[in-house]
Specification:
The protein has 239 residues and is α+β, with helices and mostly antiparallel strands. The protein has one domain. 40% of the residues lie in helices and 9% in strands. It is built from 5 helices and 8 strands, in the order ααααβαβββββββ. The strands form 3 sheets. Strands 1-4-7-8 form a 4-stranded antiparallel β-sheet, with helices on one face. Strands 2-3 form a two-stranded antiparallel sheet. The termini are far apart. Bound molecules: calcium ion. Calcium ion (CA) binds next to loops.
């Protein structure tokens, strides 16, 4: 028996041994990989990892989303507040225009015989807007001319951006933060009204017939520096 015959016999016995054993997938993978080189699909197919996310991966994703929301929320609030300021400024311009249109129509200001403030710190602004809106309660708008026509508030219990409809607020014109607009009219007819702010809002006596303002987001006003304290966020018609 030569060397070749012995070797052939051993190979035959190994093959027989292999054939009698159940197939081993792991060995097949190794053979396949070694034959074809790197084969990711074969490795993936035989991966023992289940489909889906692990708890750690989910927690990381949730943490990233929470951080993004935390970053975006203040920016969103700032944009929303700026939109409200723009709305308030637009409303104030319309209010001043409406009072001036009343003056043009009737040759006098509505109601007043002396410099008068309507809204916070004065009479209810519903008295003024009843005239300007020509409602049934108007007493000095005989031609029933509508000088301004704001929408009613959406939520009567929490009035914002419109005319109040609840018993306690009916007829009042509210700013986007929920405080009634303030309006001062030159009822003394000397083209001079007192500035509600002592500084940083023009001279202490304004040479204007009508001014209007909103107390802003903090819903509080002040008679001092326009650029300080609760007056800082107020929106005014004359600057
Ligand atoms: Ca304020």
């Amino acid at each position: 028996m030569d060397v070749t015959t012995v070797a052939a016999g051993r190979v035959a016995s190994i093959v027989r041994l292999r054939l009698t054993q159940p197939p081993l997938h792991l060995n097949e993978t190794i053979v396949q990989t070694s034959l074809t080189g790197h084969n990711p699909s074969a490795m993936q197919r035989n991966s023992r990892r289940p489909a889906g996310f692990t708890l750690i991966e989910l927690l990381v994703v949730i943490a990233i989303i929470a951080i993004l929301i935390g970053l975006l929320f203040p920016a969103f609030q700032a944009v929303q507040n700026q939109a409200r300021r723009t709305q308030a400024k637009n409303d104030l311009t319309q209010i001043v225009t409406a009072v001036n249109a009343y003056y043009t129509e009737y040759g006098k200001y509505p109601l007043v015989a002396a410099d008068t403030i309507y809204g916070p710190g004065g009479n209810s602004n519903a008295l003024l807007f009843n005239e300007l809106r020509a409602t049934a309660a108007a007493t000095q708008n005989p031609r029933k001319i509508v000088f301004i026509n704001p929408p009613d508030v959406k939520d009567p219990a929490n009035p914002r951006s419109g005319i109040g409809t609840a018993a306690a607020t009916i007829g009042q014109y509210f700013d986007p933060w929920g405080t009634a607009y303030a309006i001062e009219i030159d009822g003394g007819y000397d083209n001079a009204i007192a500035n509600p702010y002592s500084s940083n809002a023009g001279s202490t006596t304004l040479q204007i017939g009508v001014i209007a303002w909103s107390l802003g987001k903090d819903q509080a006003g002040g008679s001092g520096n326009k650029k300080a304290g609760t007056a800082d966020d107020d929106v005014i018609s004359w600057q």
